[in-house]
Amino acid sequence: xxxxxxxxRLLPSPATGAAAAATPTLPFPRHLSTATAPALxxxxxxxxxxxxxxxxxxxxxxxxxxxxxxLHFSDVRPxxxxxxEALALSPPATSRAAADLFRFLVRxxxxxxxxxxxxxxxxxxxxxxxxxxxxALIQEFPTAxxxxxxxxxxxxxxxxxxxxxxxxxxxxxxxxxxxREALTSLVSSLSAEGFPSHGERAAKKVANEIFPDDNICxxxxxxxxxxxxxxxxxxxxxxxxxxxxxxxxxxxNAVLDCVCRLCRKKDPLRMAVxxxxxxxxxxxxxxxxxxxxxxxxxxxLCKIRKTEDAMNLFRRMGEWGCSPDADTYLVLIRSLYxxxxxxxxxxxMTWMRSAGFGDKLDRKAYYGFIKILxxxxxVEHAVKVFRxxxxxxxxxxxxxxxLLIEKLTKHNLGDRANALFREAIARGVTVAPGEYKxxxxxxxxxxxxxxxxxxxxxxKMRLKSKRLYxxxxxxxxxxxxxxxx
Length: 485
Hints:
Elements: H1 2-10, H2 18-22, E1 30-31, H3 38-55, H4 65-72, E2 76-77, H5 80-89, H6 95-107, H7 115-127, H8 131-140, H9 147-159, H10 163-171, H11 180-192, H12 196-205, H13 214-226, H14 230-242, H15 249-266, H16 271-284, H17 291-303, H18 307-315, H19 326-338, H20 342-354, H21 363-375, H22 379-391, H23 398-410, H24 414-427, H25 457-473
Parallel strand pairs: 1-2
Helix pairs in contact: 3-5, 4-6, 5-7, 6-7, 7-8, 7-9, 9-10, 9-11, 10-11, 11-12, 11-13, 12-13, 13-14, 13-15, 15-16, 15-17, 17-18, 17-19, 19-20, 19-21, 21-22, 21-23, 22-23, 23-24
């Protein structure tokens, strides 16, 4: 007992400043639970995060992580929710300390090693590319591995560019975990990160045990299409049809997008023809168009600045029983503003709100509109959109204020720029003051007043002689031109 008191005096507590002051001394044990004492739980999560940071410092404390946690958190009853909260509050370089915290809570504080408890730890470690620590935890607590932990592990491996390791993890799974859900998670992770070939090989390898379904085929086709491998996507569509399956509409839309992107890269003038060929093939196979199909076509038309064609397609969507979604409206608004069709862009924004997508017009969308308008030198309308953003309850950020202040100054509107700067300071937005040069096009050139020069006597005499000579010559009879024979 006296050793513990001595260690408490020598080692600093992980709770610092306000966190230590916010945690009162209570006669009952501390609970990591959000239902009974929220303020206490927040302080405990902050204390755990501070402890993880202290263990990750250089040099670390002169004690083992288990002893450190036992010293400061010996009366904690943990829950999965606040374990995840503590990991979310922890500094970036705390991967190994997070693994030690999980081991301490399981061994010392009776935390059940379930999938819900292991998943945030695996996500925390894998996000920092500490895959050896993840593998060690899984080998140490094999019963805790579940769908959530496995999905986080496979997704981060694929995101880190390690598709072979992800396939190896799937191959080493026990029989009860090697099911269709795990295979779908593997294929989805690999296809989303640009490795559909690894996902296809893994699916074919276990086809005798887990036969691929429509969802897996759709994920593979979409992965090949997103990676720009059109031949492989079309081959897989043919194999799926011959196998008695039909890829989903998402797969066809992804292939259509791949066709449009390849045409934009090689020959933009052929994009409409090639897209129409694929649409005819879709209809021949009984695949109807949906809002996603039109969104793909309209987006690619706007990419090559065919705004009028995109608007015509937008007006014809009702012929196929489709209505535009929020992304289609946003793409068209940006394209109309880019084409300097300001009034049509404002009208499209009104239509978007009328269609029920007003919540998608957030601060990020408004900043994109302001950026486009400033790029085409329509600063007055950019200020109008800026006021509209504030009117709908979206607080502008640093980027919006800085961009408008810079553009107003370049347009020789210094008074309005200063007013906008004062407004940003009053709202608590930290806009850094800078020096901006006024564009010469917006500076009015001063007209020089012509001062009448006083003539000298010799100059007056010369002008007088010229006037007299002209007067005398005006009385001389001009010779008539002779008539030609």
